[in-house]
Amino acid sequence: MGIHMDDNIHAPTVTSGPTTTGESNRDPAKLSMVDLMQEKESIEEELSALSSVLTSHGVNMNSSLTTFDDYPRDDIDVAQIRTIRAKIIRLRYDHKEVMKYLEKGIHDHFSNLQRVQGETSSIGSTNRSSEAQPNLVTNSLSGAAMLGPPFARVNSVAVASPADRAGLKTGDKIRNFGSVNWTNHERLSKVADLVQQNEGRTLIVKVARQDGDNITDLDLELVPRRDWGGRGLLGCHLVPL
């Protein structure tokens, strides 16, 4: 497997020049939201592949490539690792640029949504809309889940666990977990961080539940707890999509 991945290193699937504007058709400023999402996923896939190659060499982005007396190490392919690291750095920059335009598009979408709602609402509902506005702006990234795909699936739920009490079911797909969504979950590590930081507090979890051909979006209230009688703070197992 390592050999094939090494071969692929020299044929990246994503434009990864010094800037993302190297080729106009990959300029994130000119891409639609759908294309930006595809570009994001493509960059993340390549970053994952490149990171796996580094791992197969037993190094990471910070490992020293020289011996204690400053000679290149002879137990690794120093030249190839430097090439991979340079590509990872460029791809991280590309990813940052794509995310910037994704977030701008999401923010614009919700601003337009609020404006249309404000124009068509009665005075009473306009007041309610203005009260909700700070929340909509604060959660503009959370709202990204409405435009993008779920990022995790519930693989199992323990009986009487916090997840069970919240109403989570096996097979549910997670669109939002508090402030974490498809744009920022970092292979679910941010979900784990959020849970640890919010023991005893209510987190809103937006799930997509499929019943036949119908998909229902649900907002569930989940309170991470340590004293429910089982393992972990949630009592459920999530897998990334």
UniProtKB/TrEMBL annotation:
The keyword Chaperone is annotated on this UniProt entry: yes
Keyword presence, Calcium: no
Domain called PDZ: residue spans: 154-209
A GO term from the CC aspect: cytoplasm
Domain called Nas2 N-terminal: residue spans: 35-111
GO biological process: proteasome regulatory particle assembly
Alphabetic keyword roster: Chaperone, Proteasome
Compositional bias segments (type: Polar residues): 13-23
Location of region: Disordered: 1-29
Family: Belongs to the proteasome subunit p27 family.
Protein name in the entry: Probable 26S proteasome regulatory subunit p27
Organism (species): Petromyces alliaceus (Aspergillus alliaceus)
